[in-house]
């Protein structure tokens, strides 16, 4: 087969100028890090070609090696492009309308967050109208181990992915309630997987509670989390749980915007 002329990424090698795009597409759609050998087999490309293209894409930041160093995942440039697409004015208006309805119903600040290395970053937010609020603007990075958003994301990882991340995850206490033990975090994540949502009971900020659920695309791939937080003076954790059905329903509505 002439690898230069065939190509749709489905048993035929993509054309020369499309090869990097098909590599990025395959990496982006994979549920786990993809090795060079797997990419070569999927795209029907010779080993030297795959390694040369991966080296270029890695040097330019489009892909990066996973924590084990054996496979490739989306790099900073690919994540940035995805975030820019996600933040496009048309899609963002629709998301903000959905987020605004949730904030109005709950009466508290609601957020959409995305993973960013060993943290979560706020990409969309609707603030509560109450003067007493916890202010964390869009672009703020918060830890994975002590936030509802972070723990909700951790619960979506495969066990190998979670265990690799756990080995290098900083677990600094921000309040006396923060989880700082890898074993305790693993137990918490197992509980989150079982019940389908995560909770922050004053773990990130003293006097603040939060709930979060994952947001997935129509293929079931999780790209972020939906959460709300409130001061305990206004909303107890028990009261916050009454909004879980609405939180999950809103996450499903957000899926339709992807």
Automatic annotation (TrEMBL):
Residue stretches making up the HTH iclR-type domain: 14-76
UniProtKB keywords: DNA-binding, Transcription, Transcription regulation
Pfam families linked to this entry: HTH_IclR, IclR_C
Annotated protein name in UniProt: DNA-binding transcriptional regulator, IclR family
InterPro entries listed in its UniProt record: GAF-like_dom_sf, HTH_MetabolicPath_Reg, Tscrpt_reg_IclR_C, Tscrpt_reg_IclR_N, WH-like_DNA-bd_sf, WH_DNA-bd_sf
IclR-ED domain segment(s): 77-258
One term of GO molecular function: DNA binding
GO BP: any one term: negative regulation of DNA-templated transcription
SMART domains per record: HTH_ICLR
PANTHER family associated with the record: HELIX-TURN-HELIX TRANSCRIPTIONAL REGULATOR, ICLR FAMILY, HTH-TYPE TRANSCRIPTIONAL REPRESSOR ALLR
Transcription keyword on record: yes
Keyword Transcription regulation applies: yes
